[in-house]
Design goal:
With about 55 residues, this protein is mainly α. It comes from Draconibacterium aestuarii.
Length: about 55
């Protein structure tokens, strides 16, 4: 990331106080869920479980 983009991100945070922490948290939960169900061949069932647990 360039210094200019970093500066823009920092400025945006202080103006709106918004971060991507919720998206990062969801990604971590989804990664753990995928690791627990490794080898699932039914993609439709996998997406159903994700929707039921995290929706």
């Amino acid at each position: 990331m360039t210094a200019n983009k970093t500066k823009q991100h920092n400025k945006s945070y202080f103006e709106t106080r918004s971060t991507n922490a919720s998206a990062e948290s969801f990604n971590a939960k989804l990664k753990a869920f995928r690791a627990a169900l490794r080898g699932v061949s039914d993609i439709k069932y996998f997406l159903f479980r994700v929707a039921k647990i995290y929706a």
